[in-house]
Amino acid sequence: MIKNSLAILTIAGSFSLMSAQDISTIRNTVDVYSNNNPTGSAKYQAMAGSMGALGGDISTLNNNPAGLGVFIASDLQLSLNINSSKNTTQFNGTSKDFKINKTNLSQTGGVMTFQLPENSAWKFVNVGANYSEQSLEDYSETGGNNNISFAIPAATTSLNFDGHAYNRYGTLSNSSIGLGANYNNNLYFGAALHFKTADIEQYDTAAFIDTALNSTEIFNKQYTPFSERSNGFAASLGVIGKVNKQFRLGASLESPTWWQVTRIYDSYDNPTDGTYTEDRKIASPLKATLSAAFVANKDFAINVDYTLGITKPKYTVYGAAETELNNYFENNYKNLSEVKVGAEYRIMGLRLRAGYGFTSSPFDSQSVSAYRSDGTAANASFNNFILGKRTTVAGGIGYDFGSIYLDAAYQNVQSTYNNPFLQGDNSVNSNYFSNNFVLPSSNYAVSKVENNQNNISLTLGYRF
């Protein structure tokens, strides 16, 4: 096993940035291992995941397991998800688009209800299980700029920047089991265990034109490509209480997800090229959710959820690499803040739903030495650095046939972020490497990425 091999800090302005650590490692720590955008049933998707004080859907295990206590009938469901994700990258006045389309069985789950004796204040004890899966595939390609050029005197040539790409493949899954209870039809309690897996293949590549040969040279960032196979565990507790017939309040607490990560990565000139492995442990943030719902009658309900990250991502320290990753998140990470609103209106068997969600940027504004269009570099400050704020607009329709129900949902999710790459540090051997050259770039290039996702979810359910 190789430890302590990946990260050294540099300071730019008042913010610390990773110079040896691939930027994608920082991004994946938040985007994958601290994921706060789980998929669910079509009803859950249509209401933007806002169900914390309503319950009554198996996907409430994602944010408040007390929602299991609301069930008065057993339920089974299966969901299909059709996802279209498009990245539009802008740099040096040019734009590049790339779209990924995925279709998969995204969610399946069920609840078994157990009615207690009529003379008991405890009305129901329910057991639920849910499995969800989502693609992690993501590709952002940045165009070139010949003004960003590096002289290589020993080879009597220069390298002109011709483009860059971050490329990620993978899948994130979550298996949850939970227990919910109904006390006197006024208080609902729940607890759940969550077992997660993540499989990631990550690439960080840059292309340059060798002006002497007029040929393209492909570079890989040090310690990439890499693959990670990870298993995580978390637990959650929740409660829902009726203030009166119309108002409900909910609260839940989800522990950090404790991840065990096995990574395989490529290292260049260390002192010789080779493939290495290491183990890491990551704890995602502890999260709390507060919810409120207004249930006007059996036909209309609206719910608001607010989720706050109480802690920050943290690596178990084996040496300098994990210490410096932790320092980066301590100095630059902003605790999660998310608001979601969802509503449902019923007309006999017809169900109409809508939702909206907003998640703040996970990182503070950061200053780096960045290339300008003319190829010179200067300190510049960037908001939404590495990842940005996210907005979700959703809607859906369903029909309850009695024992069987069908639901459909549409979500549009948008985010914009500033995308850093190209920087390397000779002193810690963290450059980009090709078969012939080592790239001597001490500055970042930063492009703007606009991500637009369109999700369609279909759920078939059976109630008995």
Biggest sheet overview: 14 strands, antiparallel, barrel
The CATH topology label is: Porin
Q: How much helix is in the residues?
A: under 10%
How many DSSP E strands? 25
Tell me the name of the CATH homologous superfamily.
Outer membrane protein transport protein (OMPP1/FadL/TodX)
CATH architecture: Beta Barrel
- The shape, in one word, is elongated
With helices defined by DSSP (H or I, 4 residues minimum), what is the helix count?
3
| N-to-C order of helices and strands | EEHHEEEEEEEEEEEEEEHEEEEEEEEE
Total number of domains: 1
Q: Which range does the strand content fall in? A: over 45%
CATH class: Mainly Beta
Low-confidence stretches: 1-16
Average pLDDT confidence is: 92
Structural class: mainly beta
Alpha-carbon distance between the termini?
A: 52 Å
Radius of gyration: 24 Å
* Major sheet: arrangement of strands: 3-4-5-7-8-10-11-14-15-17-18-21-22-25
